[in-house]
Amino acid sequence: MKKLDQYIVKTFFGPFLFIFSVLFFIFIVNIIWTQMSQLTGKGLTYWEIAKLLFYLGMSVVSMVLPLTILLASIMTFGDFGERYELAAMKAAGISLLRVMMPLLITVTFLAGILFLFSNNIIPDFQRKAKNMLYNIVSSKPAINFTPGVFIDQISGYSVKFDKIYGKKGERLEGVFLHKNASPYDDQQTIIAKNGKFANAEDRNYLKLILYDGYVYEDNISGKSFEQRKKQPNQSVKFDSLVYHFDISELINNAIEQEKITDDYRFQNYAEVNETLKKNRETNLSTLNSVASPVINQTNNYVQYIDKIKPKDPKIEEPYKIDSLQKDKKLEVLWGAYNKIEALKSTVQSNQKLIADTIKSHNKMVMYQQRIVSYSFTCIIFFLIGASLGSIIRKGGMGLPVIIAIVIFIIFYVLNLTVENLSWKGKVNPYLAAWIPNMVLFPFSLWITYKALTDSQVFDIEKYKALFKPLIEKFVKPKEHQRYQ
Questions:
Q1: Do residues 423 and 359 touch, judged by C-beta distance below 8 A?
Q2: What's the pLDDT tens digit per position in 410-429?
């Protein structure tokens, strides 16, 4: 029996390693397509790009491994059935459950490895990727810009460079800077033929040295409309000009070297749990501060109404709006309208703050719970894959791949649906992280039971016979052929 177990495990790991490599490459390609345009041609070496993509790509393992187990188990047991090896094992008195047992133990071991990987390795690689991006942004500012395209990533400015070149992308041609200001503030536009990036003393600032250009200014701040009409346009020609931009927003989530700990994606299960405890206290104080002004304002208004309300019902109200003069009536209505609009804007901003708080908290909970839930997904996918493989008795890359993709799409759609509902606060995040497993687990038990009892779930003739009486009522029988 030990030799049989070794044979089953060996047969499983053949397609497993191949499928894992292919799926990992496919998922990595998605990251490459989204990131490569921002990295290539910006002065980065191929080693730096490969290293960064490797760090970012490690997070896909949590999705690749369950899908690999599903597909490999379908192919393994499908091959056993197609080559009549499964029938030979059953003829020898070995049950399907006994055949599945060595792989079930193996998959449980892989699920444990996935938990350790998701809990320890992936957060560390995410931290390294963020550190690397911070260092790249600090040392090679050109990575934030695309030649010939206006960008507004620098707060308060629209920037365009016609050409970016040099070993580190520090040389510039065709510089256009425009200060984003309201029509009532001072306007400024800078145009230069050449320029270069330079290191600033504070790494949160971008130093830009410009050559041979003009500064166009309109100093209209605080001036009346008539004065602004008479204000002459001002232009200053310069040979060289040093400009500093605040780029802290580009790297505001990063801290130098290995000190990034403020993001939950860089923490393991226990650390996220501690962060959640701290955030609950902060969230409660935030929600209380949001509710207090509206409640206090409403209570004050109610107290005022009670105060001016006459005790004797026969006494009329202090005044009725219809009894006021037209100008006074408009003044009262305008004041009431402004109060209502102020309350509406306050309520809308409070609703947005509450929604953002709920989304941030639920994101953190979902991330924490998926560290564990994806490990159980591996076991559920194995039960489904092994049972389906033994039923369809078809190996190779044809039908098993189609079935695996359909099951994975169902799982993925459930995952995204409950995730979005959780972010909106409509589903408890602890429950949302486990709903896909809760939906597929009963199906895995049912399909395993069908496989153990040799049920012909995918027998087409069986379903034809079931619907035959119904079909005969609507389909006209064919005429007998003259010659049989």
A1: yes
A2: 998 999 999 888 888 888 88
| Complete DSSP assignment for 124-187 | HHHHHHHHHHHHHHHH-GGGG--TT--B--STTEEEEEEEEESTTS-EEEEEEEEE---TTSPE
What are the residue ranges spanned by the domains of the chain?
2-138+365-468, 155-246, 277-357
Q: Taking the model in full, what pTM does it have?
A: 0.68
Burial string for 35-72 (b: 16+ CB within 10 Å, else e) reads eeeebeebbbeeebbeebbebbbbbbbbbbbbbbbbbb
Neighbours of 7 (CB within 10 A): 12
User: Are 130 and 260 spatial neighbours (Cβ–Cβ below 8 Å)?
Assistant: yes
Question: Which of 227, 191, 229 shows the shortest CA–CA distance to 210?
Answer: 191
Pairing of strands 234-246, 205-218: antiparallel
| Region for residue 176 given its phi and psi (left: phi exceeds 0; alpha: psi -120 to 50; beta: otherwise) | beta
Q: CA nearest 50: which of 35, 64, 60?
A: 35
Length of the chain equals 484
Task: Report the C-alpha gap between 338 and 455 in whole angstroms.
Answer: 72
268 DSSP β-pair partners: none
Check: CB of residue 55 under 8 Å from CB of residue 126.
yes
Residue 40 banded pLDDT, cuts 50, 70, 90:
low
CA angle 460, 461, 466 (to 5 degrees): 100
Instruction: Write out the two tokens for 110.
Output: 């892989």
Which residues, in sequence order, are bridge partners of residue 191? Answer: 176, 214
Instruction: Find the largest Cα–Cα distance for the chain.
Output: 107
Q: Which of 59-63, 288-292, 438-442 has the lowest mean pLDDT?
A: 288-292
Give the span between the Cα atoms of 115 and 113, in whole angstroms.
Answer: 5
- Edge-to-edge strands, sheet with 187-198: 157-165, 171-179, 187-198, 205-218, 234-246
Cβ neighbour number for residue 391 with a 10 Å cutoff: 21
